[in-house]
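Q: What structure does this chain adopt?
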Amino acid sequence: MTRNRFSGRTALVTGGGSGLGRAIALALAAEGASVVVAGRTGTSLDETVALAEQAGGTAIAQVTDVAQAADVEALVRTAVDRFGSLDIAVNNAGVFRGGRPVADLPEADWRTLLGINVTGVLLSLQAEVRQMRTQPDGGVIVNVSSNLGAHQQWPGTTAYAASKAAVSALSAGAALDHISDGIRINAVSPGASATSMSLRPGETVDERTARMKEESPLGRVSSTEEVAEAVLYLASDAAASVVGTDLVIDGGASL
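A:
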């Protein structure tokens, strides 16, 4: 059955050129939203737009570096200028750097993690909230965190986990700060999902499948569609009283 939970609404998805971001953007477009996909690589963004349009949805792309305030402000302006409002924002852009103990982490990797995963979310939140607080119906923001950080630790991922723990904390604090503006802010914290980020160096998809049968209580990675569906729930009117939650989607791995 076709649903149209987001007809007439404008959604913005950062990191929308691949993986979870692409799945979220396509799911929003499939349910009637006009979607602006943002990221650093124009060709992959264009592919997401083409997939959305092939399925009958509406989407546009804008190359954006979320670590640059001017880029994020321009992104929000584009959404409003093109579609008239910004109703839903999904801050998904993020990077992973890891595979070694924290004492051996290059400073450049640390700064990259903070710049994109933390400052990028902060700058996105600021620009989105400034627009949404001017709108009669406010808006909804979902930040993509991780089960690594506030929920679980894993050797060799300390710096990444620290950046994602910051996203979880930032989401909860911002939710309290801005619910009075009519803006609901929540987070999702996926575990291993069916994207390249969950593959270890040199690992094949089949090898990951075998590994997850041992590592995850669920016995598998989450599909990107499963994560997208959780994001859409938080963005929907069905979650109207859900404020400041951090929804873990990891098959029980962090229990």
